[in-house]
Amino acid sequence: MIRSEILKEIAPILRDQLVVCNIGIPSQELHAIDDQPTNFYMLGTMGLASSIGLGLALAQPKPVIVIDGDGSILTNMGTLPTIANNVADNYILMIIDNGSYGSTGDQPTYAGLKTSLAKVAEACGCENVIECRDVDTGEVLQKALESGKMHVIVVKCDSGNAKNPVITMDPVVIRDRFMKAVQA
Amino acid sequence: MNIDKKIADDLVANDISFVTTVPCKQLAGVIEEIDQRDDIYHIPSNKEDEGMGLCAGAWMGGKRPAIIMQNTAIGVTFNTLATLIQYYRMPLPMLISYRGELREPVACQVEMAIHTKALLAQMNIPTYHFHWQKDVEELDNILKYTFMCNKPVAILTDANFWGGYGDQ
Is B63 helix (H, G, I), strand (E, B) or coil? Predict the structure, then answer.
């Protein structure tokens, strides 16, 4: 499965949750599949989805799901020790690990070669680290939500992108409707 | 006057309850003070752009954030300032230790100090410079200004403000 197929499958689980979505094609895909006010789309700032999501989870009680990528985690690897040492049990970091920089032309990442992000997360002190197959994503995510414990889920999947238009919504509109959804 | 305590008091008085820090020797006292405050969640960052991401999330979650960092790291934060904090119009007080200014003992620190104000000006970031201890009296107004206009605002604090660099 490629990322967009996974997102389509888990869209019913994501719909009622606060979601922070990674820059570029992941946000375009989620926006096209199921745009919700509870989705925070990153339009720039590669690498910071996991940090934005952690800040959000620590600041309020609703569950937060971060849809991140292997390339973005590699860009901001320092996020994993911060996550491990500031436990927020309403935080789920879901790394869609397709072994490539999808938004820039599918160049290979080190996560698709020798580097295991699940092992890195564990070495950083993260608890409840699960590496799963693409077809199991929905089940693993649902269980993580029900557990009420912080999770890091690494979804191993195929490289590839769906063709979707760029998001033209104004960033302040994205942010404002998201903040209203957080407070609702 | 205890500057560290005064800064932490002003943060709390302005309802700032989420503070991320990347350490600097000049900032050691204020970081320790913040760490001890029950009404502030202190979350050390590994890098300043990561810290700004944490602050953005905390603010969207209903908490007022602040970042405490050193000016030498300003370069790694420009993309985050432009495409996250400014683009989505978010408030962010940046308490910055202004290394490389008067009373600085380490020559290399001057190399970023000479660029700091120009870079902040290029980014259209309102910038204040604390050189004398009494300058801290402006902090309360600066924090109110930051959350009034929803912008990143820089407060540069040099070695003279902190009473010298210390024992080096």
Answer: coil
